[in-house]
Amino acid sequence: MTAGLLPGDVAPPASAWRIGIVVPYDFALDRELWRWVPDSVDLLITRTPFEALPVSVEQAVAIGDTAVVAEATRALITPSPAVVGYACTAGSFVGGPGGERALVAAMIAAGASAAITTSGAVVQALGALGVERVAVATPYDDAVTGLLTAFLQEWDIEVTAAHNLGLHGGIWTVPYETTLDLVRRTWTQDCDAVFVSCTNLATYDAIAPLEAELGVPVVSANQATMWAALATVGLEANESNQRLITQVPVGGVQQ
Question: Pairing with 114, which of 46, 50, 72, 75 sits 20 to 30 Å away (CA)?
Answer without folding.
Answer: 50
